[in-house]
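User: For my dataset I need records formatted as: sequence, then structure tokens, nothing else. Please produce one.
Assistant:
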Amino acid sequence: AILSMRRWTFTEFGSEQIITFIAMATPDDLNANAEFIRLADSFVEVPGGKNVNNYANVDLIVRIAKEQKVDAVWPGWGHASENPKLPATLKENGIIFIGPPSGCMAALGDKIAANILAQTAKVPSIPWSGDGLTCQLTEEGTIPEDIFNKAMVTSAEEACARAEKIGFPIMVKASEGGGGKGIRKATNME
């Protein structure tokens, strides 16, 4: 990504050095002589170990961004790049997040919201509890609460009514989390 941005700045502005890149680096990345560290103009060493200690730690990222007086943060892939708290917290601190707004990020991380977005974009979908729902996003980039709530199933009675409408077999799943572990197949009302 750093190479791509440097090429872009050279093409647009005639200089690869118009943007200064400051990377976060764990001891493991430093020991491995990771390419992103070599390509950066400087780096800040962060704790090693689990990503909650470093690349997924929103508070650490924002603190370093403030200490380094950066204008913008590009979080790379994975880790905090998928956490809606990062763009929101950076914005609160006057720092630009290079990526989607926190509302859109939250919507895409939620199964209900993501399916409503897909239907709004006319992506063919299988029948589900929010079949046919579409919307205009709020100013924050989120699904309006009244539309979101129409897709939610909050009781056993409601689940049975939706299952009858959809038809069996059905898959039952929580709208967020679980990594697919909570999906259950139901072939009838029992």
